[in-house]
Amino acid sequence: MTTQSSGGVTEQRSLLGVISLAFVGIQIILLARGLYQIRKLRALERLYGCEKLCDESDNFRYDVFGIVKAIKLASHFHRRTSLLYTNSLFQRYGETYASNVLGHRLIFTCSAENIKHMLSTAFVDFDSSPLRRPLFEPITPHGIFTLDGADWKRSRGQLRNRLSNLRNIIDLDLCEQHFQAFLQHVPQNGQVFDVQRCTAALALDMQTRFALRESTDALSFTQSQEKKQFVEDLDLVKERIVRDGFRGPLRHLVPKRAFYQACWRARKFVTARARREVERRSSKVERTKDGHLGTGFDKSEEISQFVDQAMTILLANDSMSTTLSGLFYCLAQDERIVQKLRASIIDTIGLTPPTWGQLGTLHYVRWVLQEACKALRVFPAAVLNARVANKHSTMPSGGGTDGQSSVLVRKGDIVVFSTWTRHRLGKDFGDNPDKFYPERWEHLSSDMSGFIPFNKGPRICPGQHYAMTVLTYIVARIFQTFSTVSNYSTKEWTERISLTFENENGVLVGLS
């Protein structure tokens, strides 16, 4: 018995020894691999003349897994202070710095040079789908938000072709109808109303008319229950996408049943309109002599393409509404610009609705939009954006003690760029860049590298000219109709980051 017991103990010790050796061996292998990777990265830095990138290690010295940093980001998002927090970090660490969030290396930048390099020069080195696909796939699986490479190029080309001829897709008579519906929600005698809520409904009606060939009637006092449900579902989907984007991997811990149900209902609503539109198109396809449809027309493919394009357009819808509400927030605080804006419109085209030829002559309207609109400078619609490096790459600045040397971007790094900070802290816009001053655009160009309202490079928003044309018409009609903007907002602007950027407190004004 003693001999057997002794033998068992010996076997256990031997097994423990083998496990210990294996564990030590694995640790040595991992350490060796880590050291090899570090040496490889150092060699790449020397090859490309890169220097060390400033990081937040002084603030999160013991946060090895980036958990504390993730909690802090979530806390600021919850308290509606994300952008102020981001600005403070750029002011502390410079225009480009690194951070560790849940084990991922994030590079934050507001450098115009770096943003242009990433979006244009080194476009092929960075992807967006690894970040966007998990968020957007349930609502638009084959839209441009979820694709990269050849599939993205094909989908974007189809969407760009649809948006290419503005005179064919923008009906000014329909714009006027929607404007008149908007007027029904403006109280008389300059009484208070939330222009942010009304412009959201206006933009949605116009965008659904374009995307679905049918308005959701959000401004109508007799909106159908079906359309009301679609609007609610669309809002829920957009809100959840943004929240999940900020949560990162933690999004998997939150139930998504309501989100998936809203996606299903929204796609069902759009698919019904798509099928109707495709049937209409098919009736116009040239028929063969025996009366059958010509070859090359695949209804199912057409319907799928129509649905994804429509959902893409509607998910980006808020940029127009937040542009208008941001504009009114600024105008309500500056009577001089209101008077100058109205005078510029009346002096140029009078009081009749603008024609196509007249829209291009409203230069001060364009300056006001470029300066104050949420989709543009002071309140940009997409305040933060990101790309993932699909290979080792570089950015031209951010390294060294002065931040002027190039830096190495490792494969898998997430580069977050801040439009909000670039437009407010950048020196591109002259003195007092955070001030609402449309006249600065007399000497600036919308093509300047630091101005990023619609992105840059191959992924630049294909609907930017559509949006600016429609916005120019609406702003002209509003200030042909009203001459004063009264400010009823008693609270400061409080960020509400959805797929675009809004004021949590609404924009309370009066028009007379």
UniProtKB/TrEMBL annotation:
Provide the cofactor list for this protein.
heme
Superkingdom per UniProt = Eukaryota
InterPro entries tied to this protein: Cyt_P450, Cyt_P450_CS, Cyt_P450_E_CYP52_fungi, Cyt_P450_sf
Q: Which residues form a coiled coil?
A: none
According to its UniProt entry, the protein's GO biological process terms are: mycotoxin biosynthetic process
UniProt-listed Gene3D superfamilies = Cytochrome P450
Q: Name one GO molecular function term.
A: oxidoreductase activity, acting on paired donors, with incorporation or reduction of molecular oxygen
Keyword list, A-Z: Heme, Iron, Membrane, Metal-binding, Monooxygenase, Oxidoreductase, Transmembrane, Transmembrane helix
Q: Where are the transmembrane segments?
A: 15-36
Q: Which family does it belong to?
A: Belongs to the cytochrome P450 family.
**PANTHER family the UniProt entry points to:** P450, PUTATIVE (EUROFUNG)-RELATED
Q: What is the protein name for this chain?
A: Cytochrome P450
